[in-house]
Prior knowledge:
Shape: flat
Number of helices: 9
Oligomer: single chain
Largest sheet: 6 strands, mixed
CATH architecture of the largest domain: 3-Layer(aba) Sandwich
Amino acid sequence: MKIDQDHGRFRQIVRGKVRENLRKYISTGELVGRKGKDVVSIPIPQIDIPRFKFGDKQMGGVGQGDGQPGDPVNGGEEAPGQGQAGKDAGEHILEVDVTMDELADILAEELELPRIEDRGKSKISNAHDKYSGIRRVGPESLRHFKRTYREALRRMIASGTFRPDTPVVVPVPDDKRYRSWKTITEPVANAVIIYMMDVSGSMGDEQKEIVRIESFWIDMWLTKQYRGLESRFIIHDAVAREVDRETFFHTRESGGTMISSAYKLCAQMIKDDYPASEWNIYPFHFSDGDNWSMDDTLSCVELMKKEILPAVNMFAYGQVESPYGSGQFIKDLREHFKSDERVVTSEIRDKDAIVGSIRDFLGKGK
């Protein structure tokens, strides 16, 4: 239908506008607060959709009653304008809903993200058809030759028309048998993201906003890859604790930093709830790179080598630049894991660096 073609064309225009402004949306976090259950409401500039609006009955108007060429169409006197004439075009803002799948596809196209290879099977289900029986009706493409032949042979023997010296078996419609199927549900790959964030005194509101924006886009892409993605949240200063999403992004903490406390909790979480044979596991740690001591950094390295890395698809560490942090931890990780492809590090100097950091983390296809 023409309306379907028009709607499809409009969606393509919207998609182009979103892609054109995607880097702006990523760096400013404008979309994060507009996320609904399955869609994101996006303000698109310079797209004006024409529409008809019906007025109330018996209100008069164009085409009703007497009139002369040049009469005002509003049925009254021309009202004087207010203010000075301007020279610039007005900006028309239209909010459109874009599904999370569409947004993930646009993100993938813009950042050239590969699809992720699954590992393991667990709770997430995928429905597909399986041939499981025989029935008397069906399309010819599903006709079961052996069962049809057997039914025809049985009928001919019972009726005395079968001749062993000329064993010709001709099926009639009642002899035909067809494969039947049923829809079965099979577990497919499961995934969990374990977010860890340093909330010590050196991580300010700006640093947490960067983590919030980047986590939104990471969540969106992995949700596209895995239906039913789980997310867990850990915050830490000198001690670590699990929290909900709201607390993770809005907590205000202070104090020193012991990163190993978060890694111990992450390792325990994986051991208790997410067997590596059944789950795709993605720990993401965000910090300003400050740690209590080199001894604690070495404890983190041991935890990663012995408990975390053997179980995960990828371990991602994002270091957010802070005027108060030393920035040393990313150097230590790169020194100890420079040849381990499972460890991906990224420096996030400011909001403009979020796009590159997302590509660092998700561009591996792990």
